[in-house]
Specification:
heterotetramer, A: seven-stranded mixed beta sheet, globular, B: alpha/beta, Aspartate Aminotransferase, domain 1, Aspartate Aminotransferase, domain 2, 2 domains, seven-stranded mixed beta sheet, four-stranded antiparallel beta sheet, 15 strands, binds pyridoxal-5'-phosphate
Chain lengths: ~475, ~450, ~450, ~475
């Protein structure tokens, strides 16, 4: 069904068509300034049905949570409740304008305030800013806050961020964007931060460390308090990358182990949809030390009303207005529905599911670290000569399962990073396990099945090298 | 809980498989003294209760669907064809991740490619990326990109009449870098006199924050002569009629794309649009989708040129951006295809005609005057009494007359930034005029 | 027009292919003197204008989402999980026709099969069809079916307390047939005394129009002894707790299924549910989906037993029904799966508890009394002043207290049919009590 | 993509699961009447994600207008504007209750009144009732009205309805339901009603005729006035089946040629979605003679408000309340958007498209009646030995096109009934034509390709005989 290639909008275009009727003008015409006008407007011309059919058919060429199991490590592809969408579609949110003034925006501000409070409690933080639009944006906030803190104390030599080698690429990239240099800290045999290396790196130029916990291997940094202490003692601060919070909601408040500033990806743990790339929210929380530096404005409560306010020593604005508001509505809806007990159950079941899948697969797919994992784990896909992780990933598609994250984290060769999430049933996990074991067999008995996979998709493996060598980024007719 | 399917029986079996007795044993790596805190966020509620709570909260906002609306200033009330949200909210788009596996993501990938193509044509550039967080961050990253081309060029020229919040964002993004940000108040061509051998880039607001459109002829040449980059921050609706910045010589074009089929949503999620000319492609931030072929020769689309990005280049990446505004971009793509050439022109023309009709009518209200110049859909109205008081008075009557400029500029107490789009009827405009007249008395 | 893609160039080419010069030539079979009339329905408007017009019209209704709502009487305000409309409105469901081509309609067909299965289990019958227009027509067709079994049996027993509009529909459906419709006022068991050898069927309202639930033990046996069919018209929400009519011996079970995940929509589209016991399957009206296999042995679903239907049997068909209420049935299927066993029970229990709490509280309001008997979610409240006046007074305060029974029964001026569901909070109920107290003064 | 068979809900069920959270009770419990309670409630138990994924995946196993070209004759599978859906979703409609009283329902009544008026103008009728829920329901209304008219005049012998042999099955079935007997009128060589046969059938027992025009062959009954006159002269009345109105909106008002009563399928001409079977609206319009008999209530305007009222001699109610209201909202939205000129253009382009496709196909697919057609035409699929219309239909699926209506009307052997509709582009029609011609070739060169079609659907041809012989209508575990 729907296997025909889908033409591009420009190919579907015919002169004179239009996809909607616009109102006739009810005012007199005003002459246009001819010299400022463009000569042509090369946009497609389509009728409404063609647009609808085009995008409906395109959508069917996607895997998604709503259609397939999607155990994409680090991305927390858990169920996104439909109530979130109903909430975000309410007129009172959709048609609210950011500049009408606080008095006329009490609904939006109340929601943001409540969400700030809830997220602060979940993280154990003093203050929260909902402004960052994604995790990386939250990281930028955090690192700029750390920088501002040192600068405010006149401590301007601190320009080095320590970053474990297992960290997500956004961590080092963010540090650069915040004017820092990066020093990479290796992992030890257990998959944790190498404490000795950390100590060595902790000189007087250390601004701080960016630490992901659970880390990207799906392991909880056992010595997190020691790490925090070492960095603090060296005068640095600790940034927490909260992308993996799904493993520990209601189990641990990151601030309780000394994290100074942290982002949470609301588009992961808080069940807001990923939308094929975004939008997200990389809300940042901070303890007493850094809360005054949060990006702003944030919402404060004064007597019986809410107001936007800049934190006292704020690093400033990170975007226009106040954050990806409609995403906040979804996250708020979710937290209200699951509540305190639900949050804990989410973490518990996410971790249970990951350990279950790991237990079933590790005999065949080598798992480099022999510990119980958190919400995800990393295995290797190179256990048969001539077969790569990529082949296994592509073969999963033939079984109607979205491949896990692959080749990340970089420190595990041929990594396969599996995050089952708590919203998938045991039956789904069992089928995934069965398919993974079948593929492991096939890897030995019929390797070409893997090399040629996927077999039944709109396109097979694409020539990515050609794409990058001679980039075609725009329809050329 | 409806979001956790695991039954008690499942759980027992799974624990046995894992080889532990309780779930707690899986959390022993977490320091015991702080494990299982009481959060104090309350019990979970039913969907019905939560949605009711949200409805009543949302009802506290004063919104554009129930008022005569003349407020823009960076967030715009435009018509959104019904098909836009209906198609974009399909689960296959909504609940997919970034299209890392192209074989099962051609839907998202092709939609991005079409967006890139349409946006590039709209801007008059060679490549547009798959989005930034918003118009402000897109511009900030454009300036950062210009600065990184040559770190000896540490002067940045910004128009004084750039959106005040965009300026703030740029300042935040540059807080760690030794740059000098200069604001120019002249028209862009005249402002070229500020160019020096240290200028990294000159930013042009097209239209400016107050809605006015400068003639950019010759500007880019002067900027290029000085060895700097020309960056234009624009309004995509205006480009339905006005010259494309790329055509005018801009090297980088950015815009806030919310107006393209996305609701105002109290300011987010919005759409950062970012495009460049050919020579800059490999230096630009953000995701890019490219066309290629599979083994059978079928056309397909992939994420490409990712060697610029953080997941490959880490600290050497051109930007840290990872998640972007995918779904907002998708809505913009659907919008642009629905409107197409004829529709976008028509919308722009309606904005132009209605804004000018409004300016004409309002300028006749005793005590009011409209700032002169070529404007597109926004203009500055000088008011006889403080604009903030007028806005307050009218908003209570459900006529939202615009932005009192004192909100950003303390001393501009008697100015209102009025925005008129295809959503405003003649009747609303006439009503605004009348209400303004009364408010002045 | 966005709904007609044919360009002028296309049109020219097509006319040439057809071999005519103008489109008019294709209409020459139509009498010339009346061709191309002026209709006088006005010019087409833009989507924006039409939606605005509709918004303002819709705003003139007093609706359940903004009032405390105690009005049922055949259309019920129940909770609809957000996923129900979101899934049912997917284009692939919404814009498909009746699944005549099973290979490309397995989505619809399987959904119908699942609905049939769940509804049959809920009713305690062996087969449920793919829907009728509503609960009233489902019941009318059930009675018609019973009548057709043996045209010598021309007496139909209806409960006096059947929904008045259902009775009217039955009368309309039977207007061409020589039947005697008798209404019984006793409890069903006692009413069995009216059975004769001419009785085609006895209809039982379970609950009755006033919300009361009779004990049906033994009724079906007596009906069967008389050689008639036992037809039960029921409420599917109540069946979350109460005995299934099939279990109680009913031969045909019908219901209004709107409450299963469908909004009230000013009375339509609703869902006619219709189920029968095994022996009657080949005589039942409506579409049926059956399970079968393809050549490869794969399970699949098809429309089946269509030899009963109008498109095959024409004048000998068991019914003329063709289009039914497919999408409403789909919403019911999604609803039933979302609720499932535990959810439906919980909803029914909430209705029960809240209705009884309400009855208790209202019966304490001076001047008011609740009609005794076992009721589920509706009950009759006797009022000290005319119920119509009370309803009017309260509705203006956005408390809709129920249906004044005078609406259907002229002389029952002091009775209100009050409906309480899971949507009503304790606070609303207490408020209703207070408002009723005030209204009586 | 999504080729795995989809389990049934009952197979996906596990004890204890639930798909939504319900509110906790806020009132005291009342004991339940134990003897009236059921022992078990055999419904599935599913979590929310499972429900969402289940129905999303099921939906992908459908062809639909939004995804495929769907030239299903007689069904008018034209584009259903998304604005219709937006309109129907407005709170003010969705949460309106039918019994709150006219004073509190002025919005609904105004819409119904306006729609009645517009449809009356489109048809040329005196009165309109929006109550019937589908075409067949409208037919029942009409035939009962005719019956009531005769009865009211004491003319009780009129119990015979004349029905052309090309008529849709609902016409005869309806007549039976209205207590009439049916006499079938053959078609002549031109595909029109055989006038001589009609005259012969017109005795004093004739209640009326049910005539579809354009008829189900897609032909306009040229002698419609003569037919009307013959029937009227015999004392009968004329029922018009308006399922094919899409061909003549704005071109002909049926009342202008003497139709006494008629239904329009709003779910065809007026672009409301078919929903995989319904709901529809079979609104009925009537001229002066029959308008007082319309089913009711209908909406009347009194001074400045609207009220429900029973027509003076109404046949009564045909359903509870007032019709499929949410469908009316959609139809109203559509008529307002297209307007007077649009209605005519719809018909013109529907007819143009049908004639174009016919012109291109008739050399290969025999078309029994050599006339220009209206909005659809009937061809034959048995032009190659051993190939049946069914085979052609199934082969179309392989090309991602929904088959036309087949084996209807019954008077054309191996009928293929093609209705392109006005909302499809010439490119789509050209592709359809090309595919049809390719299939005609394949029918000769590789007949098995047709016999085995479809090849790539979730299931191949199903055993319908077994399904009917031993019906499984309910999941049995
Ligand atoms: C561990 C980790 N850190 C940071 C990020 C970046 O978050 P975002 O994509 O929201 O910018 C991700 C996203 O995948 C992540 O997994
Ligand atoms: C000619 C004709 N008449 C009547 C009908 C019956 O209409 P409905 O399915 O709405 O009952 C149809 C439906 O296909 C039809 O095509």
């Amino acid at each position: 069904m729907n296997k025909e290639p889908e033409l591009l909008a420009y190919e579907l275009s015919r002169p004179g068509r239009i996809g909607t009727v616009l109102p006739q003008s009810d005012v007199p015409e005003t002459p246009l300034p001819a010299s400022l006008l463009r000569n042509e407007l090369p946009l497609p011309e389509m009728d409404e049905l063609t647009v609808v059919r085009h995008f409906t058919r395109l959508s069917q060429k996607n895997f998604s949570i709503d259609t397939q199991y999607y155990p994409l490590g680090s991305c927390t592809m858990k169920y996104n409740p439909k109530a979130n969408e109903a909430a975000a579609a309410m007129h009172g949110w959709k048609h609210a304008h950011p500049l009408i003034g606080d008095v006329y925006s009490q609904g939006s501000l109340e929601l943001m305030y409540n969400l700030q409070e809830m997220l602060a409690k979940i993280g154990g933080f003093t203050g929260v800013s909902l402004q960052p639009a994604a995790g990386a944006h939250g990281e930028l906030a955090g690192v700029l806050m750390i920088r501002a803190y040192h600068t405010a104390r006149g401590d301007t030599k601190r320009t080095k961020m320590l970053i474990p080698d297992s960290a997500h690429g956004t961590n080092p990239a963010t540090s650069t964007m915040a004017g820092m240099t990066v020093e990479t800290i290796p992992s030890d045999a257990d998959g944790d931060v190498d404490i000795e290396a950390l100590k060595k790196a902790c000189d007087e130029t250390v601004a701080g460390i960016m630490i992901t916990n659970p880390n990207t291997l799906g392991l909880f940094e056992k010595r997190i308090r020691e790490i925090v202490e070492i960095v603090h003692r060296a005068g640095g601060l600790v940034y927490g990358d909260g992308a993996n919070l799904n493993a520990i909601t209601g189990i641990l408040r990151p601030a309780d182990v000394g994290i100074d500033v942290m982002h949470f990806n609301l588009h992961k743990t808080f069940s807001t949809p990923h939308g094929g790339g975004g939008p997200g929210v990389g809300m940042v929380g901070a303890g007493v030390t850094l809360a005054p530096y949060l990006p702003g404005p944030i919402v404060v409560k004064k007597d019986n009303h809410y107001a936007l306010e800049m934190p006292s020593k704020s690093i400033g604005r990170l975007k226009a207005f106040y954050g990806n508001f409609a995403v906040l509505v979804r996250a708020y809806t979710y937290v209200r529905m699951v509540g305190e007990e639900g949050l804990r159950r989410i973490a518990e079941n996410a971790v249970l599911n990951a350990n279950y899948v790991k237990a079933k697969l590790e005999q065949v797919y080598p798992v480099p670290y022999k510990r119980s994992c958190m919400h995800e784990f990393v295995a290797r896909g190179d256990f048969v000569e001539g077969i790569h992780t990529l082949d296994i990933a592509k073969r999963l598609i033939d079984y109607d399962i979205h491949p896990p994250t692959i080749y990340f984290p970089l420190i595990v060769p041929e990594a396969i990073m599996i995050e089952p999430t708590e919203t998938e049933s045991k039956e789904t996990l069992d089928r995934f396990i069965e398919v993974m074991l079948t593929i492991a067999q096939e890897a030995k008995t019929s390797p070409d099945l893997l090399h040629d996979a996927p077999h039944d998709t709109p396109v097979s493996r694409l020539d990515e090298v050609a794409a990058a060598r001679n980039p075609v980024l725009c329809y050329r007719g | 809980m409806p979001f956790i399917p695991t039954t008690d029986a499942d759980r027992e079996e799974m624990l046995k498989t894992i080889g532990v007795k309780t779930i707690d044993e899986l959390f022993t790596d977490i320091p015991k003294d702080v494990r299982y805190p009481r959060l104090g966020i309350g019990k979970g509620l039913s969907e019905l209760e939560v949605l009711r709570e949200l409805e009543s909260m949302a009802a506290k906002n004063t919104t554009a669907n129930s008022c005569a609306w003349f407020l823009g200033a960076g967030a715009y009330n435009h018509f959104i064809p019904s098909l836009v949200p209906q198609l974009a909210s399909r689960g296959e788009f909504l609940t997919a991740y970034t299209p890392y596996q192209p074989e099962v993501s051609q839907g998202t990938l092709q939609a991005i490619f079409e967006y890139q193509s349409m946006a590039a044509n709209l801007f008059g550039v060679d490549a547009v990326n798959a989005s930034h967080y918003d118009g402000a961050t897109a511009l900030a990253e454009a300036v950062l990109m210009a600065y990184r081309m040559d770190e000896n060029r540490h002067e940045i020229l910004l128009p004084a009449k750039l959106h005040p919040e965009y300026k703030e964002v740029i300042r935040t993004y540059f807080s760690a870098f030794p740059v000098t940000i200069k604001e120019y108040t002249e028209a862009p061509l005249a402002a070229c006199s500020h160019l020096t051998e240290h200028t990294a880039c000159m930013v042009i607001a097209y239209p400016d924050f107050e809605g006015y459109v400068a003639d950019l002829t010759g500007v880019a040449d002067k900027v290029h002569e000085a060895g700097a980059l020309c960056i234009v921050s624009t309004d995509p609706i205006m480009l339905g009629l006005f010259k494309a910045p790329g055509e005018l010589g801009a090297d980088i074009v950015t815009a806030e794309g919310q107006a393209l089929g996305n609701a105002m949503n109290y300011g987010g999620p919005f759409l950062g649009m970012f495009g460049v000319k050919q020579p800059l492609i490999r230096k630009m931030p953000g995701r890019l989708v490219g066309e290629t072929k599979d083994k059978a020769g079928r056309r397909g689309f992939v994420l490409t040129l990712s060697a610029r990005e953080q997941h490959i280049r880490r600290e050497k990446a051109v930007s840290n951006i990872c998640s972007n505004q995918g779904l907002v971009m998708l809505q913009a793509a659907i919008y642009l295809e629905t409107m197409g050439k004829n529709g976008l022109q028509a919308v722009a023309k309606l904005c132009w005609d209605k804004a000018h009709y409004a300016a004409d009518v309002l300028s006749r209200v005793p005590g009011y005057a409209v700032q002169t110049g070529v404007f597109f859909k926004e203009f500055v109205l000088k008011t006889p009494v403080p604009a903030e008081a007028i806005a307050d008075k009218l908003t209570r009557r459900c006529i939202v007359p615009g932005l009192p400029l004192s909100r950003y500029y303390k001393d501009r107490t008697h100015e209102l930034l009025v925005c008129v789009t295809e959503m405003n009827t003649k009747q609303q405009i006439d009503m605004l005029a009348e209400a303004l007249g009364e408010a002045a008395r």
